[in-house]
Write a structure and sequence with these properties.
The chain is about 40% helix and about 20% strand. It is an alpha/beta fold and about 350 residues long. It has two domains: about 1-30; about 30-340, 3-Layer(aba) Sandwich (Rossmann fold). It is globular, with a radius of gyration of 21 Å.
Length: about 350
């Protein structure tokens, strides 16, 4: 090999090692250690400045990015998957996707209302489809995923109204689905966790349908701005979900600031949390929403609600940490499965 070629290879190798060393150093943060891919994602996101633009164009781009991020997740074979359009408040149609697992025993099966995340402004069109197939198989429940109306075109209470309408439909049509109307759980991530918590409150206040369990994954439960949560200051704009952008999402969902103290917007501010369904609350360490989610778990427990709280050492939604996300998904599915009386899951957990 010619001397100049060897020198070029040595320079290239040195640059690669230098870049690897620099990027690896990003895993060390002021508030703890991040997984490598998550650290790279966080660093790249921190370089992108400017206000969050909640437009149809950015929504499509964000949904496409989610699908790309989840492209490694295989779709789990199920007995049946079906798209339907349900009647919503005011006569509009609510798209839902229904997932039937292979029945491990005689019908009816339990039911689970899945409420997607996305800051109340994205996540439509079922970009989390592959993950949902796995959750349906692992829980042994018929999962109904709701494609609720989004902000800013449809602010509060449009999304919550749609979720409530789908829950009532599930309860009324449980037998046609092969489901048990007395074994219904609900859950969601981030904004979906907010809607799930609000729906549990609203359903309790309205006298049903009864919810057997709620799964709140990295939920937003205080949109009021009344409390200065330390996790907002700790996270700042350094960990993908930026504190500076959270307010834009809050404002799009609930344009009137005074309305953000409504318990159906900020469940943590409810005067009474008693009588709510048992809950699993999962938070992420590098997440502005961490402290309010954990405060909500403690408030539920203080009100006599059975709660399991779990904090994971990752970004919001455990982005960039597929192993962590998989473990949490399995733990949540098994918790839901047991809460709905389905017994031990296929992995024997």
């Amino acid at each position: 090999m010619k001397r100049w070629a060897l020198r070029s290879l040595l320079v290239l190798a040195t640059l690669i090692l230098l870049a690897a060393g620099i990027s690896y150093s990003w895993t060390y943060t002021p508030i703890g250690r991040l997984d490598y891919v998550a650290a790279v994602m966080a660093k790249v996101a921190s370089w992108q400045t400017g206000p969050a633009e909640l437009t149809p164009e950015t929504r499509r781009a964000a949904n496409a990015q989610v699908e790309q991020m989840l492209s490694f997740v295989p779709e789990t074979p199920l007995a049946r998957i079906e798209d339907r359009a349900l009647p919503g408040p005011g006569g509009h149609a609510i798209p839902v996707r229904i997932y039937w697992p292979e029945a491990p025993g005689p019908l009816p099966l339990p039911l689970y209302l899945d409420i997607h995340g996305g800051g109340w402004w994205m996540g439509n069109g079922f970009p989390f489809h592959a993950v949902t197939t796995g959750f349906a198989a692992a829980t042994g429940a018929i999962v109904v995923s709701v494609d609720y109306r989004l902000a800013p075109e449809h602010p509060f209470p449009a999304a919550l109204d749609d979720c409530a309408a789908v829950l009532r439909w599930m309860h009324a049509n449980a037998s046609e689905l092969g489901g048990d109307p007395e074994r219904i759980a609900i859950g969601g991530a981030s904004a979906g966790g907010n809607l799930a918590a609000a729906l549990a409150l609203r359903t309790r206040d309205e006298g049903g349908p009864r919810i057997a369990f709620q799964y709140l994954f990295v939920p937003a439960v205080d949109l009021s701005g009344r409390s200065q949560w330390p996790s907002y200051q700790e996270a700042g704009d350094a960990y993908v979900l930026k504190t500076s952008q959270v307010e834009s999402m809050f404002a799009a969902y609930v344009p009137e600031p005074a309305e953000r103290a409504n318990p159906y917007v900020s469940p943590l501010l409810a005067d009474d949390l008693s009588g709510l369904p048992p809950a699993l609350v999962v938070t992420a360490h590098f997440d502005p929403l961490r402290d309010e989610g954990e405060a909500y778990a403690h408030a539920l427990e203080a009100a006599g609600v059975e709660v399991r709280l779990h904090r994971e050492q990752g970004l919001h939604g455990l982005m960039g940490s597929p192993e962590r996300a998989g473990r949490v998904q399995a733990m949540a599915a098994e918790t839901v499965r047991r809460a709905l009386g389905q017994g031990v899951g296929r992995d024997g957990g």
